Amino acid sequence: MKIFLFLSFLCIASLLQAQDKIILADPEFITGNNDHWKDISFDDSKWKTIRPNILWEPQGYPDYNGYAWYRFHFRLPSSLKDNSFLKDSLRIFLAKIDDADETFLNGEKIGATGSMPEDKEGYIGAYNVTREYHVATASKFLRWDKENVLAVKVYDGGGGGGMYGGHPYIDMIDIIDAISLTLQHAVEKNEVSVIITNQLGININGNLHLQIKDRKNNRTILNKNISLVLSPLKSAYKNIEVPEGEMELSISFKEKNTGKIKSLVYVMPYILTPLPGDVPRINGAKIFGVRPGSPFLFKIPVTGKKPLLYHVDNLPAGLQVDAATGIITGTLSNRGEYKTQVTVTNNAGKAAREFTIIVGEHLSLTPPMGWNSWNCWGLSVSAEKVKSSAQALIDKGLADHGWSFMNIDDGWEAEKRSADSSIYANEKFPDMKDLGNWLHAKGLKFGIYSSPGTQTCGGYSGSYKNEVSDANTYSGWGIDYLKYDWCSYDEVYKKEGDTTLAAYMKPYRVMQQALKIQPRDINYSLCQYGMKDVWKWGNQVSGNSWRTTGDIEDTWESLSSIGFNQDKLFSYAAPGHWNDPDMLIVGQVGWGKPHPTRLTPDEQYTHISLWCLLSSPLLIGCDISKLDDFTLNLLSNDEVLAVNQDVLGKQARRIKRTATYQIWLKELEDGSKAIGIFNLGETYQTVSVNWHEFGISDNEKVRDLWRQKDLGFFKNNFISNVAPHGVKFIKIWK
Ligand code: GAL
User: Fold this and answer.
1) Staple partner for 351: which of 280, 430, 590, 645, CB 3.0–4.6 Å?
2) CA 155 – ligand 1 centroid, Å
3) Which of the pair, 165 or 384, is modelled with greater confidence?
4) Ramachandran assignment for 530, one of left (phi > 0), alpha (psi -120 to 50 degrees), beta (any other)
5) Phi and psi torsions of 587, nearest 5°
């Protein structure tokens, strides 16, 4: 594997003192809609309060979709303006809102994102857009040194509803906002370049503080202050050499006039996964399900020096394997279980493993592994982008570790259907069938996206009343996977006025039937954000997976609140149907504007380890053509991935939870156990796993899964030092 030389990283965080910022907390809240609720004089004292950084559904409003209002009361001190060097604009930061909002300050509209059902354009959701509205300080409606009311009207078209994803605040737009701190990291040189840019047309003076700390022993390696004069619209560059190890780099710029600070913290990525050896190693799923008569496609994932020679003994009649590529194709008509023996050889050696084929009704006997366009490309996905990630999946060796699905999310559909009501793709996808053939020839699978409503969440044609026709079209294109996203189905559901569980399940049943009659296997991925406890009935509509939460983003807050809240669902995961806590957020992500993930390296190790323990579908959400070595290390550790692909198909259970750490355990087919020891705190922690506390017998053999290294026998317990937001991922057996 070639070492990828350059990793670029951008992170801007601002540290403002409390007096420079008004934290908007404890708003009054009500569901429903009334125009008077924007007025400053309105009496909201009878309303309830709510937290504005968490969606409303988990806060006592289950399954509520529709209108609601938040009202924040706050004092606007003139000192805010006095302490600011630039005095023109206030920033109203609201984080994200699910789905559309109109925002009023003292009755005046100051911003709107998405649109409401009553608007000319009709309802357009914008759940994934950060709201930051600016207000001129000269505005007559501002009440300096008095009480003000910020009223946020929200319309939720489906899902969790309301404000989320950060803590809302108000501050002044100041000279510090014209400073950007960017960091570039040439991994193999262990050198970091800090770029400080002045985006204003005046000189900016200040102090740059650089610090390097060794996180293992908390030792400060570098502590340096540099006084800087940044010329108008110019950048200054500083190169820093960083020693080997788990180093943390803190950089801050303190602006001289205001004392306001912009800062970033960067943990140097450290690679744990050993490179694959020359000798062949067979990876990925050991079992594969197919329906009788459906086209069979499975590429045996193998690492080792190329060329490799594949051979399969006891392959049932109807199937053939390509000796040079390891792609098995054909069809099987008879139900049953077929045990085959795969052998792969090269000039360095040989590997053999059993591979079981089950011909029956069940697909997805292990969680699907692949790629989805959404977290990276958002609605700007195109055939070119799918192809470049698919090609990179092969060229960078990911396909050799079992990654196979290439799923197009929202944004492929034409805005209107053809005269006979058939669905077709927009100009970004000139030939879907050709794309399918191209993927299949490489042994990859082809996935697509739609909604049971009239429109998808991105505003494209949904499948409502065209389900069979759409499923037929998908089949014709060679589709292997459908993600079916609730989106605008809420309108249909409301119009029909039936609030029973059956009414919620109905659209998924309709597509279930449409998929069932297709002459090929289409994995069915339900996406409706966990409404009505989908894990309890997803299996009844033949869902191979179901989203259990709203959308994930590349922050620790999002990752940890989703990932560590899946424990109650463990009994619903099993071969053929999986809980889906959403797609991966490592690598270059960004929903149309890709940037390096904002997760620290430790948070990324936590993400992959936890998703493997949860038996979650693993869908890479980044631009694979831009994959750096660190991300490749996260996605190519066969011992870690084997925990996800284990044929027993059990989901891990949380066996211990304290305020700062959690221990999760997954039982594996061979009698061993995978254990994740997660540090949710902000500093290193020593955690002991005491065997007897969890009914585990004495003297366990322990293997470090990320390092692929045996650690020896441990009599009573296993003690490890775990990085902040990081994980120790082990396997234990007798
Ligand atoms: C959301 C869904 C995302 C993505 C998006 C497309 O509802 O949760 O994963 O599919 O729609 O518009």
Assistant:
1) 280
2) 17
3) 384
4) left
5) 80, -155
